[in-house]
TrEMBL record:
Protein name (Swiss-Prot/TrEMBL): DNA-binding transcriptional regulator, MarR family
Residue ranges of domain HTH marR-type in the record: 1-139
Species of the source: [Clostridium] polysaccharolyticum
Listed Pfam families: MarR
Any one GO MF annotation of this record: DNA-binding transcription factor activity
Amino acid sequence: MDSNTAVNELLVGLFDDIIDLEERALIKGEFKDISKNDMHIIDAIGNSEIKNMSTLAKKLRVTVGTLTIAINNLVKKGYVERLRSKEDKRVVLVSLSEKGQRAFNSHSMFHLEMVKCITKGLNKGQVEDLIQMLKKIQFFIGAYNPDLNK
């Protein structure tokens, strides 16, 4: 097998495996009623500040209409709270509920453990090399699909 084929197979396999692992690790127990897409919305809302729907939709690269449907489901399930802006009643704001905060923390811990496992045993130079390789992948994806850079 040539190196191009090996790199391609590793990248495709890793992408699929990470998505599968994330789903199996996070969408269970208390959080079995949500999808990995729901978890990514919860992650995008974050734990610190209230976000407006337009900003959140842009961050997630979806339309406000698409996000509204997902947020409605997350509100019904108790993960997200919705409120109106005091300054402009037309603006809808969202934040995580207590349950949403627990899901966010679980998701954050999963990613922290993944990074710790991947970087364990690497020296500082190797970690920097890994970061540069990942940036190259990110650059390729952004160059191949300019809409991702918006």
